[in-house]
Structure formats: C-alpha cells, structure tokens
Amino acid sequence: MAAVPLYVLLAGASPSVVRSGIMAMLGLAAARMHKLKDGLHLLAAAALAMLAWDPYMLGNVGFQLSFLGTAGLIFGVAPVRRCLPRGKHKWQASLLDLLTVTWVAQAVSLPLTLYYFNQLHLLSLLANLILVPFISFLVMPLGGASMLLDSMWHPAGVLAAHVASIGNELTFAFVAKLSSWNSFRLIWATPPLWWVIACYAALMLAFSALNRMYATPLILQSEEEQEEEIRVRSDTQPLFAGQTTSFIQLDEDGSWFSKRMNGFQLLLSSIAFVVLLVWAYNPDVFNRHGYVQFIDVGQGDSILIRSAAGKNILIDGGGAVQFGNRESWRQRKDPYEVGQKLLLPLLSQRGVSHIDLLVLSHLDSDHIKGLQAIIASIPVKAILWNGTWKDSEDAIYMLRTALNKEIPLYPARAGLEWLIDKHTSISILNTPVSASARQAGSIPKEEEQNGQSVALRLRLYDRQFLFTGDADIAEEQHILAELNQLVAPPIRPIDVMKISHHGSKTSTSEEWLSYWKPRTAVISVGRNNVYGHPADLVINRLAAAGIPVKRTDWGGEIQFRVSPNGTLAVKQKIPVHN
Q1: Cα–Cα distance between 76 and 379 in angstroms, integer?
Q2: Which residue intervals of 237-324 are DSSP H helices?
Q3: Which of 32, 52, 219, 317 could cross-link to 371 by cystine, CB 3.0-4.6 Å?
Q4: In 440-504, where do the E strands start and end?
Q5: Sheet strands (E) in 226-347
C-alpha cells in the first residue's frame, strides 16, 4: 500500500492511474481486514474520493473512459466468459479469457470513443490481442526486473531496462503502422448525448441478461441451507448479480419462463446496440438538404459543401503564412497547424469519411497548407486545380502527395460542368492556364497565384453560389470576357458570393458586382489580420449595392442550408478561431 502512491506519481498521476491506485490501496486494505467484497465497491469509492478532491474532473475524458471501462469489465467479463467454452487446454482458456476482456473493453469504450474522437479503427481489436500479452508478460516484467537487478548488479539492470525500452518502441511502432492504414478507419459524426446513454443502457441490459442466463442455480435441500447460502452470497457476490433469490431455481416452469425472458432481453438489447451504431455511422442517410459551410480558418479560405445526395466537396483548407526566415530560437517547436488542429477534427466531427472532390482554388499557403493533413488522413477521390505549379514547399508537397496517392488531378477549363448528383453541379467559369501553355503539354510555373484562381459556380437545387479564390480585378474582367463568349451564360442573379481575396481592395470591382448581382456576400477573413482585410473600399462598395455581408471574423463559421424546395437558410456559429 505504501508503494502505490509512489507508482502513481511516477506514472504521471493521470485520472486512470489515480483511479487504479486508489482501488489498489482500498482493495489491499479491505483484504487485510477480510472485508473485500467486489470491485464495484472499490470503483465507487475511488470515484467519490476523486470527485470530492476535484468535482470538475467529471468532465475529463480520461476520467470518464477509465471509470466506465472498468465498470464495464466488472459487469460484463464474467457473464460473457461464462457463455463461452471453457477450453480443453490451459492455453485455450487463456486465449478465450483474453478475447473476452478485449471484446468487452472495446464494446464498453466504443460509445465514448465515438462521441469524443469520431473514429474506430477496425484493427484495434487485433492490436489489443497482440499488445496486451506482449506488454503484460514481457515489457512490464522486464521494467520491474530492471529495478530489482539494478540494486544487485547495475549492468544487469541496465540490460533489462534497455530490452524493456526496445519493447516500448516496438509497441509504438506497431500502433503507428496499423493506424496509418486509413482504409481500416471508420469515421462517425459526433452523436448526441442521448445516443451515448442509450448505448450504455443497451449494454447493461445485455450483460444483465447474460448474467442471469448463465448463473449457477442453487439446488439446496432445506430452507435453512437456502437462507445460509443467500446470506453468504449477499456478503460476497458482486452487486451486479442483483437479488440473490434470482439464483434459486424454484421450479421448472419458472426457470423456463425466466430463460425465455432473459433470452428475449439479450436479443432485444443486442439489436438495439447494433441499430444505434448503424444509425450513428450515417445519421444523415435520409437528409436531403444541401449545405455550404464557410469554415473559420482565420486568414484563409475553407468551404465544405455537402450535396443533396450526401457527397462531400471541399474548397481549400486554410493555413498559416510565414513571413521570411526567423531565427531558430524564435520558431515554435510545435506551431499551430490549421489542418491537423482544426480542419481534420472538424471534418471528423461531421462524419466526413471521404472527399468526393477537393478543389484547390490556387496554390498560396493560406489556401492549401491545411489540406496536407486532410489528404494524408481522408480518402480523396479527385482534385480540381488551376493547372499550374508554384515553387514553394507547401505547393510542391501538396502536388507530390496527390501524385503518390494516385489521386486524379483535373485542370480547370472554362465551360466544363461537374455533375455531383442530380440536384448539385459545379460549373467552371475560367481557364487559368493560357492556351500556349496547354499546347506545350507542360504545367506552367506561376509564382503569383492570385490571378490564376479557379472560379466556380455551384448549383444546389435552385440556389447558386460563386467561389473565386483570390481572383483580382484583372482576372474578374477575364472571367467576364469568357462568360460573354458562352452560348448559354450562367443564370443571374446568384444567391451567395464569396468575396475574392478576403475583401482586398484589388478585387470585387463594381462591374463584377453589377454582373452577378449577389443577394448575400461572404468574406472569409482572419480577425485583426496584418493585411487590413477586408478593405473599406470593398465594404463601402457592397453597402452601396445593398448587398448584406457575412464575415467569419465577426461570428465564426457561416452555414447555408438549402432545402429541397429551394428555401435558403443561414446560420453563423460561435467563432472557432482567434
């Protein structure tokens, strides 16, 4: 007992370690006094002690996972194991024990894992089956032996510690390798809280039914023997067993009826758990609304589009811009990366398991740097880009990653239309690459990318959205010239226009606004940015035209929802970027 607090401190005193430490000390004390009853009492006492110390720990993810996982093992392992064969040999029994613990732990932790982390790796069960014995029977014993051996002979202790360290490195490498196989990763949108409660209720009902179905009945000769057995069991059996009289087989009819009811409860709760999982994996299967979401990525652009049929389109991914070469001591060791820290978790929370079309409006870092994490983690079916390349680390890395993953890249061509589904389409309004460059059969290099932005018109039911990246006034005039040459120019006015170049004074001319006549304008811009975006000139121009403006720096993400009947609704979320 005296050694346990030291171990807790050495292990970092996380909520799970503190929980196990308190349970170990209480369990040892209860065993010493011959008062040890079951693990559930110890678990409840540990929770009470930790919450008395810090009530806000109840909101800690580690605290929740640790206590719910331990409670699930206490409730579920015994009944699940009893319904499996015992195993003719010791190794078979051990394997079945491991399978039971692994499966129960996975099932109990799954609702919270999906609620907080939005994903499940199909190989996690296999990883547990391999790593639990490896760590339990090799790494941990070697770590403990190294301390004992060091007190007797230092070289022997160093050798054991070195082997244990190699075991840890192999463990991390194995986990990293499995997690890199994205085809085995399933993405869940963040489910509602009632779903988590319903999942645990279904699991508890299933464990309860199993416990009663496979409980050993009491066959006693006299009432005195029955009363004595009930008294003994009430002092020793786990609380989950419920009423001790449920273990007594009164007659054959009652036993038959009880078994049928328990079997029905087990079947019903299992079906409910599976249905809840299937629904959470695709909660919008019957949702026929279309969504256009201007994500707040700070000084940059990122637009997530969900089509009427549930297809995912992502235009740009934001990203920080670095100015010049800073001294090494001024560079952050762990700089904020918008793709890994914001965009990827946000897409996971919304259940985006793949991207049907990724649009790179142009190759400036504030539009593509956040996409590096997206391409590495989420399958992308196709990329549409301006058909140029830029001699920058971000642009070259992006294009090279797409080629290595064999993602088709399509250069923008004016007049082409991308049919997403029967209610959603994308029309390309310009050709950024010149005709001479196309005839040469090579990809031209363009260091100044703003004037080479891809211009798109999105049709979602009967609503139209316009996206033009960072197009300047010269490109706007070029786009209008190309549109005037089309046999069937786009229908106007449009409903929503994304203002080019974050509202810079070099874009959004009066001629441009007069041509499209947008009903609403959206400016994606960072709060207190160094460029002074959006420019007062552009804001005044929009106000003079009577166009209402939505800005990400004023209210965070902007969501447009298009109903099947064409109704357009707008909602602005709480800011997610400072």
Answers
A1: 36
A2: 252-281
A3: 317
A4: 456-460, 463-467, 496-498
A5: 290-294, 303-306, 312-315
Query: Does residue 22 contact residue 50 with C-beta atoms inside 8 Å?
Result: yes
Q: Give the contacts of 321 (CB within 8 A, at least 6 positions apart).
A: 299, 364, 365, 366
- List pLDDT tens digits, range 208-253: 888 888 765 544 445 555 555 455 444 444 444 444 334 444 444 4
In 3-state terms, what secondary structure has residue 216? coil
* Residue 441, token pair as written in the block: 């059969």
- Ramachandran angles phi, psi of 109, nearest 5°: -80, -15
* Pairwise CA distance, residues 494 & 463, whole Å: 7
Nearest to 412 by CA among 448, 457, 364, 356: 457
pLDDT tens figures, 280-325: 998 888 899 999 999 999 888 999 999 999 999 999 998 865 544 5
| Residue pointed to by tokens 């929370």 | 349
DSSP assigned state of 328: G
Place of tokens 């786990």: 238
CB–CB of 531/299 below 8 Å? Answer: yes
**Residue type, position 103, single letter:** W
Which tokens in the block code for residue 266? 């087990």
Contact indicator for 282, 486 with CB cutoff of 8 Å: no
